[in-house]
Predict the 3D structure of the following.
Amino acid sequence: MDLLPNAAPLATRLRNTLVQYHSIGGSEWRVAKRTKDATVWRKPSEEFSGYLYKAQGVVEDVANRIVDHIRPGPYRLDWDSLMTTMDIMETFEENCCVMRYTTAGQLWNIIAPREFVDFSYTTSYEDGLLTCGVSLDYGEVRPNFVRGFNHPCGWFCVPLKDYPSHSLLTGYVQTELRGMLPQSAVDTAMSSTLANFYSDLKKALKT
């Protein structure tokens, strides 16, 4: 188990990594799934042996309200069907915290429930916001859970220039679920989970 990192340099590194992902050219991505709410692409991750996923869709709301529903806080558990518990373990200044959360089983429980401990950071980006995170080896692993690991991931939320009441939401996710899992099951679950994230979020924002 590691000690907690120094928040400020970790936040800067994390932001810089996400901005780098955001500048990857379109030719490097392959479409993994399309729905009416979002498109999901993927490319091999440079962090581990799985994929870096990119998801993008237009959400009808302002960036602040959308990000409030995504980042650690009271809204997320209400609408995100994958997340079953969430606790803020430590809070730093500058919109940083460490959270522990658990996820439900997926694919008829081929993927068992997982636990994650993530450092989370929210900051301004262009005219909108970026909320991003990375997993830490911190805290005891609870029984009945496999501890998963999120490599740098995050969500850019920027208002559309011609429709400021709508926002373009772009996410980058690379999750190492760990445990004994067929990679094909993980890839199927990730694409579907990201597409469902958009439809669930849109429903939550309308209520």
Notes: The chain has one domain: 8-18+30-205. The two ends are 41 Å apart (CA to CA). Residues 134 and 152 are 5 Å apart (CA to CA). The mean pLDDT is 92.
